[in-house]
Amino acid sequence: MPILEATSMPTIFCWNISTWQHSIKLSS
């Protein structure tokens, strides 16, 4: 399922960035 992977990977990546930024705000 290359199409599913192509659409899910960016979503997971963006979600990780959002979580990381949220963690930075909490720690700072």
UniProtKB/TrEMBL annotation:
Top-level lineage group: Eukaryota
Its protein name is: Uncharacterized protein
**Native organism:** Rhizophora mucronata
